Amino acid sequence: MGRRPGSPGRRHGRKGHRPERRPLIHARKLGRAFGARRVIRDLDLDLPRGGFLLVTGPNGSGKTTLLRLVAGLLVPTAGELCVDSPRDRVGFLGHEPLVYRELLVLDEPFSAVDEDGGALLDRELADLRPRATFLVTTHDPARVAALATDRLALA
Fold first, then answer.
1. What residues form DSSP beta bridges with 107?
2. What are the pLDDT digits (tens) for 114-140?
3. According to the model, what pLDDT value does residue 20 have?
């Protein structure tokens, strides 16, 4: 009997054997405290590459803290956390932007967007300009020059 076209074949040896794969996220006894308040304690987790983990819980239970730990935005206060991916390959999109509402710090904001995204970003920056303070780095100063009140050129 042969395998059907399009069906996966066996790899790496005997039936039922799967090669070991390191998890993308591995945590053992992970903990995070803010002062005396322990938000995450003794968390064990293995998430394989290609996995999909849904994290639920009430407000204040540590969901966002866990995401920030995995993204490298917070450091654990206990246990072990390993994310088997280069830092520049980890993205974070939270319900609350990682910016101060009064101060927006943008590092090369136009470098990762296409033409339509750039146009949207132009409109958003112009809309936010009267209500916020900006610190922006860019290789394309002409793009935001009209919004700028000061400039600093580093050599």
1. 137
2. 888 888 888 888 888 887 778 788 878
3. 54
For tokens 């000061």, name the residue. 150
Task: State the pLDDT at residue 3.
Answer: 39
Are 36 and 68 part of one and the same domain?
yes
pTM, to two decimals: 0.56
The residue among 67, 89, 111 that closes a domain is 89
**Which domain CATH number covers 58?**
3.40.50.300
Token representation of residue 77: 């206060």
Beta strands (DSSP E) in the chain are: 25-34, 37-47, 78-83, 103-107, 133-137
Residues in the chain: 155
Q: How far is CA 9 from CA 4, 5, 22, 51, 140, in A?
A: 9, 10, 22, 21, 50
Amino acid type, 104: L
Provide the 10 A C-beta neighbour count for residue 61: 13
Domain assignment present for 56: yes
The pairing of strands 25-34 and 78-83 is: antiparallel
Residues 37 and 81 in one domain: yes
Q: Residue 126 belongs to what domain range? A: 103-147
